[in-house]
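Field log, afternoon session.

UNIT: design team B
ACTIVITY: writing a sequence onto a fixed backbone
BACKBONE:
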């Protein structure tokens, strides 16, 4: 790291990092970040919501209700409770 002093204030890049940034750093999370789409669908009479050309069943208690879906590369989940 460059230890050349700042021109208009005290210190240098390393001293500012040591004083401000380093104490605020946290360790990385154990799980990898997973991108997710959040969409809302209304449950039709056949109790199957459509996403990307496929149909997924939902509980009959959600008939005619708006159902929020969380879609990742591996899962599609409904966050609404009956």
């Amino acid at each position: 790291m460059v230890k050349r002093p700042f021109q208009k204030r005290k210190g240098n890049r390393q001293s500012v990092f040591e004083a401000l940034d380093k104490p605020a750093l946290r360790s990385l999370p154990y799980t990898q970040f997973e991108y997710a789409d959040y969409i809302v669908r209304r449950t039709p009479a056949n109790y199957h919501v459509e996403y990307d050309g496929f149909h997924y069943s939902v509980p009959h208690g959600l008939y005619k209700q708006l159902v929020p879906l969380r879609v990742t590369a591996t899962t599609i989940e409904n966050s609404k409770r009956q």
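LOG NOTE: The chain has a mean pLDDT of 88.
NEXT ACTIVITY: expression trials, pending approval
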